[in-house]
Amino acid sequence: MELTRSEIIIVLGITALAFRAVPQLYFVGEKFPEAWDRLLRYLSYALLCGIIATTLFMKGAALERDMAPYRATALVAATVVARWTKSPLSGLIVGTLLVSVFSWLK
Amino acid sequence: MTFSSRFRQGMKAAIPVWIAFVPSSVAWGIAAQSHKLTLEEVLLLSAWVYSGPAQFAVLGPLAEGKSAIQVLIAGTLMNLRFLPMSTALAPFFCGVKRLPLLFSSHVVSASSFIVPYLQFQKERDSEAHTESDPIAKGYGNLAFFLGVGVTAFIVWVAGTATGFIVARGFPAGFEEPLKFILPGYFAGLLVVEMKGRMVPLICAVSLIAALPGAAVSPEWGWLATSVVAAWVGWSLEEWNLRAAKSS
């Protein structure tokens, strides 16, 4: 059975609510193991990076060879500026401007 | 302190969270519009899932009509991080009934977790030697948490709707910057938060390995390489920590 987009969103929301609610309802006084906490954090960081890579550089199973170098340059610039200024917004502005300039030049 | 005054205290503490939520929610709304989601779907995602990273993770697969299983696994893996956050908050809501806890837990997010958590820890340390009613304290903490969480939630949902509506006004030719906005913002967030050596290493490996992974399997490849990168990095760190303890 194939689900519609709205149905997928509803199921996803139910799982999110379960992860938020179950510890508060049933694990009061329990301590989440520090090592597992770290694993879940690493997992979300790694997944974010995986999504960033596929969103910017892939179209299906193929690498977007023509735009990938420009987007990679903009991504590096955005991260350097964000780290330097400690502001993701500043990094985003610089990266978006660069990507815009590259796309207009092409 | 009454419930409403404690709620207002939470609202004041949430102002930095609102400021942080504005660009990320607007960026998400813009990206969702460029992925051709409807306004109803965008609002449903923001209000019902209410998780920036999970919304980012499912946006592409959802828009491209990928299998429900893939979308759900990507989103669920991302949402697992709510487990330790909610577990850490739970002891501070001592005596609060289950129904209010169930509803209030919906507004747990990374930002709305850290502000009340630090506040509760500070208060617990300063009140260590004073007697107070634990149930009243639990409800007071819940009010503070809701002051942070509910207002941040409203900012998030309003921000995504604003981003979506703003993106409708973009003329043709802005596809490239629109495509960059969300990954660019999350990359910035990641590098600002990065500490130690392991996180940058996991991120770099995951970023690079996702490309051949997606080439092999566009649906599952990047997911598998990311999970493996996180697991291997975590295992290496655990092994190092154990070795350091035993020596």
Q: Would you give an account of this structure?
A:
The complex is a heterodimer of chains A (106) and B (247). Chain A has 106 residues and is mainly alpha-helical. Chain A has a domain at 65-106. Chain A contains four helices and two strands, in the order ααββαα. Chain A has a two-stranded antiparallel sheet with strand order 1-2. In chain A, 42% of the residues are buried. The mean pLDDT of chain A is 91. Chain B is globular, with a radius of gyration of 20 Å. Chain B is built from twelve helices and no strands. Chain B has 247 residues and is an all-alpha fold. In chain B, helix 2 (15-34) packs parallel to helix 9 (134-168). Chain B folds into two domains: 3-185, no CATH class; 194-247. The mean pLDDT of chain B is 90. In chain B, 47% of the residues are buried. At the A-B interface, helix 1, helix 2, strand 2, helix 3 and helix 4 of A face helix 2, helix 3, helix 4, helix 5 and helix 6 of B.
Task: From the structure above, extract its key features.
heterodimer; A: 106 residues; mainly alpha; two-stranded antiparallel ribbon; 4 helices; 77% helix; B: 247 residues; 80% helix
Strand order of the largest sheet of chain A: 1-2
* Number of DSSP E strands of chain B: 0
How many helices of chain B? 12
Q: Strand fraction band of chain A?
A: under 5%
Mean pLDDT of chain B: 90
Greatest interface and its residue counts?
Answer: A-B, 77 and 99 residues
Profile the largest sheet of chain A.
2 strands, antiparallel
Q: What string, H for helix and E for strand, traces the elements of chain B in order?
A: HHHHHHHHHHHH
Structural class by helix and strand composition of chain A: mainly alpha
Overall structural domain count of chain B: 2
State the distance separating the first and last CA atoms of chain B: 51 Å
Biggest sheet architecture of chain B: none
How helical, in percent, are the residues of chain B?
Answer: over 70%
Give the strand tally of chain A: 2
Radius of gyration of chain A: 19 Å
- Report the β-strand fraction of chain B as a percent range: under 5%
- Distinct helical segment count of chain A: 4
What structural category do the secondary elements of chain B indicate?
Answer: mainly alpha
Given the C-alpha coordinates, what overall shape of chain A results? Answer: extended
Oligomer: heterodimer
Mean pLDDT of chain A: 91
